[in-house]
Amino acid sequence: MRILVSGAGMAGLSTGITLGAAGHNVTIVERATHLRVNGSPIDIRGEALTVADKMGVLDAIRDHRVDMSERIQFVDAAGATIAELSDAEFNDSPDDTEIPREDLARVLRDALGPATTLTFDDSIAELHDDGDGVDVRFASGKHGRYDIVVGADGMHSATRGLVFGPENQFIRHLGFYVALANLPNCAQPDRRNPMYNIPGRMAGIAAYRDKALGVFMFRSPWIDYDYHDLAAQKQLLVDAFAGHHEWKIPELLGAAVSEPELYFDSVSQIQMPTWHQGRVVLVGDSAYCASPLSGRGTSLAMTGAWLLAEALRDNSHDIVAAFDQYEREHLPHVTYAQGTAGPGGDGLVPATQQEIDARNRRLSALTP
């Protein structure tokens, strides 16, 4: 089949690999002019490790692994360590693998087969599903007709919006916002990842190899803002930490304000009654975002891409049956991953000083 995949993130690239390997003619279209890799390293967990092996990328993933989670330390205003976060707090198994986002994107891009084409600087503007195929008009003005369209364009999926309706029907805000900024002049010679809490807020540094990121998280009810407006995002971050000059907060905020590709978003989940309609199907965060608090978004995306390809193979003459199989087989993974997000925010960003102190005492008691 001729298949269009919207989005070249981890979900879109994984879908391009699995569907291309299954013999389909796949086009991936990405709105950005390059692979978008801003953000912290990500985890490959559980069943996704088996899927990565079947996709032929597990060895390359392990060749690029890092171990940031083993060095997360909560610090006081003077920078002294007062508690450490063990990887046992969030890992599924000792085999869980952490890899820089940019490395995983390149691994997946390099694994795309000859049947898959990756096109940047374009996106779906309109689509029409007539039952026999999907006619697509692109933002560039080009047109194409496809047997299936796969939306793999993230939590704020434009594909989902065109087919299923407004985002507010499906988004579940978990009460936090997160931001990540490059720290080009920050060296962490002891390879620590210090995190500093004030009630309802956290600021920190996440370092790996020769790179460091400023990490921010704060509690907040839902905020209406344009997620394409970088200046608005930066102002929300500055406002959240206004009046706080402890530790390295001013320095980190300065870096965030200067960051041309700041990552800022709500900590939210996408919950939908179905991930397909007609000949359009969703994969990854566009369908079942579990939020950064779960640490399982990429694993869900890779597993979902594999199960979608298997379902299309098993039901080669019945797309509806294929999509139903994909949902049925992947739903347990999604339910589990989304369920793990709940306690994470309270552990990272306690709401009160009393809760911060209690968290630190609990972690200290667990440290040998």
UniProtKB/TrEMBL annotation:
It comes from the Bacteria. Gene3D superfamilies: D-Amino Acid Oxidase, subunit A, domain 2, FAD/NAD(P)-binding domain. SUPFAM superfamilies: FAD/NAD(P)-binding domain. It comes from Mycolicibacterium sphagni. Residues 3-335 form the FAD-binding domain. Keywords: Monooxygenase, Oxidoreductase. One of its GO terms (molecular function) is monooxygenase activity. This is Monooxygenase. Signal peptide: none annotated. InterPro entries: FAD-bd (IPR002938), FAD/NAD-bd_sf (IPR036188), FAD_aromatic-hydroxylase (IPR051704). Pfam families: FAD_binding_3.
